[in-house]
Structure formats: C-alpha cells, structure tokens
Design brief:
Layout lengths: L1 E7 L11 H10 L3 E5 L5 E6 L6 H16 L5 E5 H9 L9 E8 L2 H8 L8 E5 L3 E7 L7 H6 L2 H4 L2 E5 H7 L1
Antiparallel strand pairs: 1-3, 1-4, 2-3, 5-7, 5-8, 6-7
Helix pairs in contact: 3-7
C-alpha cells in the first residue's frame, strides 16, 4: 500500500469551498484508506493500492471525482510521502521567525523554471530550485506583495501551481 498526499489547488479561496469532512468522504468513497485531511486548505493524506507507476491515473481519477462532486475544474498536486519528506528535508535555508518558508509545486517543470527566473526583491525574498519544486522564503507579512508573490499569483500559473507553507507540509507527513 502506498501513502500519498494530494494538495488541492484553489479551494476555500476564490469561491470554491470544500469542507474537510466532505473531502475525506470523497476520498473514502474512491476506495482509499487511512484518509485524513489537514487544515482547511485542501490537503489530503491517504493510502492506496496504486503505486508510483499509477500516479498519473490516480491523479486523473481524483481530479475527475473532485470536479464532478464539487463543480469546479480541479487540479491537484499528487506526491508520495517519500518524495514529500525529501522536499521538506531539503529546505535550503534555516527557518527564522521573521521569515515564511514556502514550497511551490507545479504540474510540469516549465512553470518552476520560469518562476525561478522571476524578478525578486532581495531584501524580502529568495528562491531556490528543489526536487520538482521551488523553495521560496519571504519576510513575514509580505507573501502577497513581493515581485515573486505577484508572479506566482498571476493567471499564467493558476492552473499549474500550488504552494504550501513548510510547516503545513510537515503536518502532512
């Protein structure tokens, strides 16, 4: 049995509201086991007979079920817990109280490369590439107003990226 983490893009913001209990019910209804949701921002940990070779089919099945059940175009980032643990462990900077540690996930490599080259405010933020992710550190209170934050929030990346705070990712493991 494989352990998976699904990070839903754009839920409980922008008009798409999904309650954690309904989300867990959907995953259980798909036949997944050990389902748990973490926070109210679309994070689901679950176990499945599907292994890494079935990742694409598993992702498509979950996205279709989300779209049908909740009436929106669903996109998720799907990772096995081993990959997520490596991503968390490899966070490149010491965690400081006055900084927010973020991890940006994408459905393909191109958005990560583009975002890695985005304009930055070196006084408030920095980015670094990781294993299929982009790490972003920003001064607390500035996660929506820096050049990188604005690039990440642009329409161009809405359907292909999602980000989570490093502390949230630890709760998923």
């Amino acid at each position: 049995m494989s352990r998976w983490v699904a990070l839903l893009r754009g839920v409980n913001v922008g008009g798409v509201t999904i309650r954690s209990a309904e989300l867990a019910e959907l995953f259980r209804g798909l036949g997944y086991e050990q389902v748990r949701t973490v926070l109210a921002s679309g994070n689901v940990v679950f176990a499945s007979e599907d292994g890494p070779a079935q990742r694409a089919a598993l992702k498509a099945r979950i996205e279709q079920a989300l779209s049908e059940r909740f009436g929106y175009t669903a996109w998720i980032m799907l990772s096995d817990t081993g990959h997520l643990a490596r991503v968390v462990e490899a966070y490149p900077w010491p965690e400081l109280e006055q900084r927010q540690p973020w991890v940006v996930f994408a459905s393909e490599e191109a958005p990560l490369k583009e975002l890695a080259a985005a304009e930055l405010d070196p006084e408030r933020e920095r980015v670094a590439p990781g294993e299929g992710v982009l790490y972003w550190e920003v001064l607390t209170g500035h996660s929506v107003d820096t050049p990188f934050a604005k690039a990440l929030a642009s329409r161009r990346y809405r359907a292909t990226t999602t980000n989570r705070n490093l502390r949230t990712l630890r709760k998923l493991l």
